[in-house]
């Protein structure tokens, strides 16, 4: 459905519980995504802290959908926007605390900032996070990884909220990470985690982080409006190689393009709609399937509803 009735967000707002944070109806959220595309949030909510978020979840009507938005680095918001409530975790969820070789990080902490905190504390094992352009919360949902390491290699405890607002502490066995995913229900909200490294040399850790950053800058279109890796790597194969083999490097639809630099990335050249980007992604999948027999699986998270077509 398209949110065409301007009264609906205000009607929904009246059903939501009182919070210490802030509600905003019909909020434009494209600016919070790397693609800079997509429609508005029906209601945009910035909770004051974990307790505020838990109370919101416990008090809202059960049929009101909730979507969590991080920094939008691996997400495409469709042009019709997102019905229900979009939760944006702010500063209270971005804390990073070092304790021995452990690092406690909130869900909104940037992966790169966690890597820097580990470097400054001479804790090794976090260097790969310097190559992941997202937050810890998004990383937990996807079991994010780069350069041969994944979050599952360092996470020892995960904190999350259930749809009813109950606070849960999860072990790795409860979290059940897998390649670009985990076993935690999609309607649970990650609020943070504890990670464990080993003692190392700060200078060596810094050099390793620099190498990760240099490799990323050389091979990925990081200075463009993109959404990170578009497809998961099929077993034993590289998605970008399959896309290249299918002749899709540089392929365009409207102002959306398959990156010339790394063809597992889609790029907004300026003014591309979410429909352009998603349509291009589906065309790539079709061509790869026809050329190689492989069905590429989306890694890019696509959320919201399509825009209604006007006659």
Describe this structure in words.
The chain is an alpha+beta fold. The chain folds into three domains: 17-88, 2-Layer Sandwich (Uridine Diphospho-n-acetylenolpyruvylglucosamine Reductase, domain 2), CATH 3.30.43.10; 94-218, Uridine Diphospho-n-acetylenolpyruvylglucosamine Reductase, domain 3 (2-Layer Sandwich), CATH 3.30.465.10; 225-291, UDP-N-acetylenolpyruvoylglucosamine reductase, C-terminal domain (Uridine Diphospho-n-acetylenolpyruvylglucosamine Reductase, domain 1, Alpha-Beta Complex). The chain has helices at residues 8-15, 50-59, 111-120, 136-142, 172-175, 202-219, 239-245, 274-292; strands at residues 22-28, 40-46, 66-69, 75-77, 82-88, 96-99, 102-106, 123-124, 145-146, 149-150, 155-161, 167-170, 189-196, 198-199, 225-226, 252-253, 256-258, 266-268, 301-303. The strands form six sheets. Strands 6-7-13-11-12 form a five-stranded antiparallel sheet. Strands 1-2-5-3 form a four-stranded mixed sheet, covered by helices on one side. Helix 3 runs antiparallel to helix 6. It is globular and about 55 Å long. Mean pLDDT is 95; it is low at 1-7.
């Amino acid at each position: 459905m398209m949110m065409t009735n301007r009264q609906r967000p205000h009607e929904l707002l009246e059903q939501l519980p009182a919070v210490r944070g802030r509600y905003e109806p019909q909020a434009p959220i494209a600016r919070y995504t790397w693609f800079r595309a997509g429609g508005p949030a029906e209601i945009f909510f910035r909770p004051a802290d974990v307790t505020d978020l838990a109370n919101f979840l416990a008090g809202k009507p059960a049929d009101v959908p909730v979507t969590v938005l991080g920094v939008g680095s691996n997400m495409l918001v469709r042009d019709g926007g997102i019905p229900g409530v979009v939760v944006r975790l702010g500063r209270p969820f971005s804390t990073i605390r070092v304790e021995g070789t452990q690092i406690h990080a909130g869900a909104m902490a940037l992966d790169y900032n966690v890597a820097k905190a580990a470097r400054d504390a001479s804790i090794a094992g976090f260097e790969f996070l310097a190559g992941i352009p997202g937050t810890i919360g998004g990383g937990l949902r996807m079991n994010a990884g780069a350069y041969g390491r994944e979050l599952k290699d360092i996470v020892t405890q995960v904190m999350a909220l259930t749809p009813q607002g109950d606070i849960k502490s999860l072990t790795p066995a409860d979290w059940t990470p897998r390649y670009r995913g985990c076993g935690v229900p999609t309607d649970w909200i990650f609020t943070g985690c504890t990670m464990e490294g080993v003692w190392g040399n700060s200078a060596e850790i810094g050099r390793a982080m620099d190498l990760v950053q240099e490799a990323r800058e050389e091979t990925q279109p990081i200075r463009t409006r993109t959404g990170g890796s578009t497809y998961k790597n099929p077993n034993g194969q590289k998605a970008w190689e399959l896309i290249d083999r299918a002749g899709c490097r540089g392929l365009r639809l409207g102002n959306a393009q398959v990156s010339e630099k790394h063809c597992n990335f889609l790029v907004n050249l300026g003014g591309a709609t979410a429909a352009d980007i998603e349509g291009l992604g589906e065309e790539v999948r079709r061509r790869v399937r026809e050329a190689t027999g492989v069905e590429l699986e989306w890694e890019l998270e696509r959320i919201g509803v399509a825009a209604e077509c006007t006659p």
